[in-house]
Amino acid sequence: MTKNSAATILQEKGIKPSLQRIAIYDFLAHNRIHPTVDDVYVALKKEIPTLSRTTVYNTIQQFQKSGIVQSLGVDETSLRFDINTSPHGHFLCRKCAQVFDFTPSYAGPQQDLADGFTVFEYELSVKGICNQCNTL
């Protein structure tokens, strides 16, 4: 993804594409690691020395309100973010702390609710040990 396409995506969402916002968007788009605010800050601080954690936090909150990212509550100690906003689940490995995306094999909670309910979003989190950690 080029800087111009990131700027275009931000503009389409009504967000002014500053250097910091473009860098944060690009990091999220190219690092599908479900990072925390601190992960983003540490990764970009070398590239943008004037960047602050507050700027990263506020930018990600703005992205979340605009539907660019979703927040994940998979970990009890930190809030993580995902640029993939399509319906999918998350698996947290209790050994390596990585978060993996997966597609549930059913249509979601709408099929489990009585008639008349409307689901706007749902979060499916599964915790365990990933296959890589299982082989160690």
UniProtKB/TrEMBL annotation:
This is Ferric uptake regulation protein. The keyword Transcription applies. Signal peptide: none annotated. It is found in: Cytoplasm. Its cofactor is Zn(2+). Keywords: Cytoplasm, DNA-binding, Metal-binding, Repressor, Transcription, Transcription regulation, Zinc. One of its GO terms (cellular component) is cytoplasm.
